Each structure stands twice: as C-alpha cells, then as structure tokens.
Amino acid sequence: MGRSKYSPEARNAIMAAFVKATKEIIAAEGVDAVSIRRVSSAAGYSSATLYLYFEDMNELVTMSLISDLSAYARDIINTTPENETPRGEYLRSWRIFCNHAFANPSVFLGLFYGPQSHNVDAIAKKYYELFPEEAERASGRMLNMLERGTLSARNLVVLESFGHDLGFSDEDISLANDLTIAYFRSFLMDACERNLSEEDVQALTDRFMKGALFLLRTSEAE
C-alpha cells in the first residue's frame, strides 16, 4: 500500500467505505459478483485509491466477510451453558460453526481457505477498528475468538485444552486436529457445490458431528 495525505481518521473512513460497498455487493449477489470496478464505483473512489488502502481485493473481500464470522462467535457465547466442560465446548462450537458455514459456504470458504486465510486475525482487528460500533457490541471473549488466527490454530487451542487431561499425546492432538480440519473442508466444498435448504444444512452438520465425535473417541481409545 502506498502513502496517503489523509489523517488516520480519514484513511479509516475511506477503508470503511470500500468495506461497506463490498459487503453490500456480497449480500445482494454473492462473493463472485465482487470486482474492483464495482466496489470502487459503489464506494465513490477510484480503483487506484483502493490499492492505497488494501493489499489486494482478497484482503478487502476477507475484511468484508468478518461480520459473518461475528454472528457465529455471538451464537457460541450466547448459548454457553453453565459448568460446560472443554470437551463439551469443543463439540458445541463445531456444531454452531458448521450451521453457519454450511448455510454460507462461499463466505466461510473465503475466510478460512482463501488467499488471506492466514491473516484473518489481523484483518479482524482492523475491521473492528474501522467499525468500532460493532466492537462495542461484542464482548471481550468474542473479540478474542475472532482474533485467534487460522481455523487450524483455533481448533488446536481447544483440543489442547482438554486433550492432555484425557490422555491424548501431543501427536494424537496434532493428528486429530489435522484430520478434523481436512474433514470439515470436504464438507464445506460439498456445501459450496449445492444449494442447501435449512434441512440440508442440519443434515450435513449432523453428519460432520458424527465424524468429529468418532475422531475424538478414536483418540481417547488409543
């Protein structure tokens, strides 16, 4: 990104305009409808200006999808039961994550397997800097979830929180993590190729959860 003559506040306002324009296009027509020309026109700035503020279109699109991730994190926190075990939280989190991901597969594919998936945590931080009103509605725990890094890193943190207590070795935990993430991706790709109804989303989520539970039981049995 190049230099700008604008103040930090003005720069953030320009970035926010690009993000809002991108979000509107995605909401109306999907991720594939996003283009430099359309976003720039809707935001009221030139295409050249866009590249002063974003590394590329992938970064802009990823930032525009963060609000979808916020809805997932909000559901996780709002449904937390008392005295939940780490293992219970792990399974509940995956079920909620799948419900959101399979209902909006192209969005979650872009977030967690797209060109900027390695940078989601930093992009989420910047998003809430641009839209502080959304950060104010989010709890500290929710923001921590959104800024935790890649999907693999997020899953590994939770697995480690209870895996060792159940007798998992570091190798078991790492393998269970890798298999779960690969397993999820295959389901997400399947969802991307189909137009799923609410019933289809639930059925796909139930099927994934059976596999995730099987992986845990296999690791526990070793």
From TrEMBL:
InterPro entries in alphabetical order: Homeodomain-like_sf, HTH_TetR
Record feature DNA-binding region, as residue ranges: 35-54
A Pfam short name: TetR_N
Keyword Manganese: no
Domain of life: Bacteria
SUPFAM superfamilies in the cross-refs: Homeodomain-like
UniProt keyword annotations, A-Z: DNA-binding
A single GO molecular function term of this UniProt record: DNA binding
Domain HTH tetR-type: start-end pairs: 12-72
Record protein name field: Transcriptional regulator, tetR family
Native source species: Slackia heliotrinireducens (strain ATCC 29202 / DSM 20476 / NCTC 11029 / RHS 1)
